[in-house]
Amino acid sequence: MNEFAEQPGLPGKVWFVGAGPGDPELITVKGQALLARAGAVLFAGSLVSEAVTRWAPEHCEIRDSKDMTLEEMSAWLQWQASRHATVVRLQTGDPSLYGALIELIQPLDQAGISIGVVPGVSSAMASAAAATESLTLPEVTQTVILTRVEGRTPMPEGESLAALASHHSTLCIFLSITLLGKVCRELRAAGWAEDAPIVVVQKASWPGEEKVVRGTIATIQALCREQQIHSQAMIIASPTLGARHWDQLIRSKLYDPAFTHRFRKASAIPDNGVSVPFADQITLKAE
Ligand code: SAH
């Protein structure tokens, strides 16, 4: 039996599936398979519509949730679960981030309907990919903070952007492009320099629509205004940005020829950080 087959005659199962950031091909294989056998799909507005139309079967009942309240969505999912073995709630990116996941699951739990969650490629990851950036670099930062600035949703105590930015690690800032001025002010308040790099990615992974804007705290607002970026954008602030063009990179220990780990023995003498091309393919004798 296939691992997500439901038992006939029993109420259906509601799957919360990450649709990925926009490109329909960035849904997971498991998410695509669930969509392909779904009797009903509730999807989140224009953000994921193409994934639905591309992968859901013709007879599937498809409903856009953009004009629905949480109660209506929950009632719809429960009703569909009484009629279909597989019901899919398609969420943008990964369902665990800013997706009202728990609010939707609690009423299903109360109704005794089983649920499953399938992760998705978050827009934070798709934005890093679009800009060819690494969010972590050895000895630069090893930490990524996924956050937003305070808008209508208040930030909990201790989570102001200025407080989080004081770590000088990577910040992936969701839901905040209309508050870019505030983002910059809070970064400054945390001691980030005017020329600290910022990348804004709009519609990461959307075929033909993706925009990558590179600037600094001093310039990014004007650049985004010029490019008319007002929605569906990720703000990445990080000391790693632009590393593709750096002359001096501190190498990752994992691939360092002088570093032994579980899967590979050191094959070169430590070289004080100076990289030796193909050093792990030559055998050096220790003196
Ligand atoms: N669960 C989603 C986030 C939903 S909140 C995820 O994991 O990506 C919506 C916010 O996500 C938007 O305001 C924007 O900041 C970001 N976002 C969603 N899709 C995006 C995309 N394709 N490119 C850039 N940012 C995106």
UniProtKB/TrEMBL annotation:
KW Aminoacyl-tRNA synthetase (keyword) present: no
Record pathway: Cofactor biosynthesis; adenosylcobalamin biosynthesis
Gene Ontology annotations of biological process type: cobalamin biosynthetic process; methylation
InterPro entries tied to this protein: 4pyrrol_Mease, 4pyrrol_Methylase_sf, 4pyrrole_Mease_sub1, 4pyrrole_Mease_sub2, Cbl_synth_CobM/CibF, Siro_Cobalamin_biosynth, Uropor_MeTrfase_CS
EC number(s) given by UniProt: 2.1.1.133
First-level EC class: transferase
Ranges of residues in domain Tetrapyrrole methylase: 13-220
UniProt keywords, alphabetically: Cobalamin biosynthesis, Methyltransferase, S-adenosyl-L-methionine, Transferase
Matching Pfam families: TP_methylase
GO MF entry, a single one: precorrin-4 C11-methyltransferase activity
Key word S-adenosyl-L-methionine present: yes
Entry-linked NCBIfam families: cobM_cbiF
Protein family membership: Belongs to the precorrin methyltransferase family.
Record protein name field: Precorrin-4 C(11)-methyltransferase
Native source species: Undibacterium luofuense
